[in-house]
Amino acid sequence: MSGSWRLTVPLEMNYFINVSVVKSTVSKTSPLAIISFCLLLLIPSAFSQVKSLKPKDLPEVYYRWLEEEVVYIISPLEREVFLKLKTDRERDLFIEAFWKHRDPNPATEENEFKKEHHRRLSYANRYFGRTTSVPGWKTDRGRVYIILGEPRDIQRFEGQSQTYPAEIWFYQGLEKMGLPSGFNLVFFKPQGIGDYRLYNPNSDGPMALMTSYYGDPLDFEAAYRQLHEYRPELANVSLSLIPGEESTALGRPTLSSQMLLQQIETSSWREIETKYARKFLEYKDLVEVEYSTNYMDSDALVCVFQASSGIYFVHYALEPARLSVSEQENLYFTNIRVNGTLTRDDGKLIYQFEKTLPIKLNQQQMQDVSRQPFIIHDMFPIVSGAYKFSLLVRNEVSKEFTTFERRLRIPAPGTGPLMMPILLGYNASKMPATPGRLRPFQVAGHIIYAEPNRVFVQGDTMSVAFQITGLNKAQLAEGELSFVFFQNDQEFKTFNRPLKDYPSAPEFIENISLAEFKPAHYKLTVSFIFSGQTLTSASEEFDITYRDYLPRPWVQAKVVPGPDDPVHLFLMGTQLYNQGRIEEAIKTMEKAVSLKPDSPEFALNLAQAYLTLKEYKKVEELLSPFFKQVRPPAYELYVVLGQALQNSGQFSRAINIFDQAIEHYGVNTVLLNALGECYFGLGDKEAARVVWEKSLSLNAEQPEIKKKLEQLKIKK
């Protein structure tokens, strides 16, 4: 079974899913997990960093593809990206992606667009290059035929003494290309020699079609009347290429014809979503080969809220253009991999994560077909600072990927009052009492269901959710909120509410009926007013559609531990450490370890922070309990404890720890080099020489170790 459709499938908590089905066989999905990964999405601007080749510098096969095969149908962005690629492998993958994004029916093996394009190219070379020295694809008729295809009708005017050879091509039904419903194109032989050239009413005029015209060369009306005497059909298209369009009173050609000729040149790629090309360039080194050609569009929503514990959380929603699943024995499933990174403006990686989202549907669920989008909701803690948040999402069945990036600015403690960005939801559902759990987009005891496009139906109830941090008691008691709606930049509706009317303050939800909101574009500004002054405000835009109904998405939401769980402190401590904010990191990590002292991961991160500040005694006290357990501790604990002992001059104890690590995890250059330093510190130069030479046998590219061995030989 293969094909593509969208369906409504009730899963847990009344969620629904938008699915397309692809025929494939995949292995068993992995369990849901959160693991660290080594993906670097540190690309400030691929376009600005990569130099372009000149077409003539391309290998011949790629030069011909760019300058001959697709020269009329490739967009400027796609062309620019192609010239920035460095290897033939990258060019081959890009060409594959180029055709995929033009395939009208991806469910079939054959790419109908590619097949038709090559047919047009072959036809142009066969029939339009016969009477000229250039190949057919380079002629005007060949170019138009390749872009627009076969005309509905062709009128030919040849062997006439009064007019030069000419052809009128009539096209119809190309509205999807952004062209009129019907139009003509004229080709003629200037002076009756050479090849046919595309006629432009504005620059050529009726006089260019006649063999003898002795009137004023600027008098288009006189030329039109003379041509009409000879060939009425040709005269009728000489001033306008669009049937039924009246010429101006002065008999001048219309601007519509000029615009039409310009539109034709871009019509072959105007409707193609070329964002994939930029994403291909940015992510070609970061995604697996089988994914690189399958970029799909998506929309995203990001909000930041402060939990009751004082920790800020990034809440994000990603809505891919489609979700593909595989069928196997009446089961439909896929696995979604979500990779996220948080980087500073200088490109330093602060935080990274990977999550897998397995989706499995049975036959019964597949029968509940409907048109519902699919959206992923998730959240993670974050410390104060300015960042770029990047997300890479991969569908392991269809090998499709999508991405998004957002800039985030998290306020420092004590900043306030500050209104966080507004979240506009189509539904606010009261959350059941689950003190040990947090849900994405949880505000004031409700889950706010929102979509990135912020589109509503007239009559919906819109939930306006936001938060104001840093409020003092007086502001909570006496402040008020001002809600101002603008319709197409004109003030439409306004009202005020005192803060004391909101028992959930400093978190706020205002449910607003949209019954009086006619279809249009709107902007909402919410301001916090205290003592007659606006202290902080935020704005958000939304649209009211003409449609009577909007299909709302099925939500795949990740539930995370509650706001007081030490895992959030652990992650925040890691972010602080990676920024070099060591003192803050230690304070945060110490609190996490105190709440979960048996966690080797928590202890390891804190020990690394101690090691950075040369607090070697604290490292030993923190990690020693893990070496008293029956099972050997993790490899990283051996390394950090050994380094602490080594750096504090306890070389014999450090050697013992490194030897244990080798016994349990095997030999490697890190352990051998550390052992050599310890032996050298004890004055045992021969032992140091032996282990360093062993290290070089594992990896000869170690100049520092080579230098140490040379120094040992000199001292001998």
Descriptive overview:
This protein is α+β, with helices and mostly antiparallel strands and 716 residues long. It folds into 4 domains: 1-41 and 288-297 and 305-410, no CATH class; 154-245, no CATH class; 412-563, Immunoglobulin-like (Sandwich), CATH 2.60.40; 566-715, Serine Threonine Protein Phosphatase 5, Tetratricopeptide repeat, CATH 1.25.40.10. The strands form 7 sheets. Strands 1, 2, 9, 10, 11, 13 and 14 form a 7-stranded mixed sheet that branches. The protein has a 5-stranded mixed sheet with strand order 21-27-26-23-24. Helix 16 packs parallel to helix 18. The protein is globular. It starts with 19 loop residues before the first strand and ends with a helix.
Descriptive keywords:
seven-stranded mixed β-sheet; five-stranded mixed β-sheet; 26% strand; single chain; alpha+beta; 716 residues
> How far apart are the termini?
76 Å
Number of strands: 29
Total domain units: 4
Instruction: Name the overall outline.
Output: globular
Low-confidence stretches: 1-20, 23-47
Number of helices: 22
- Largest β-sheet summary: 7 strands, mixed
- Tell me the radius of gyration: 34 Å
Q: Look at the helices and sheets and give the structural class.
A: alpha+beta
Query: Average pLDDT value?
Result: 87
Helix content: 25-40%
Q: What fraction strand? A: 25-35%
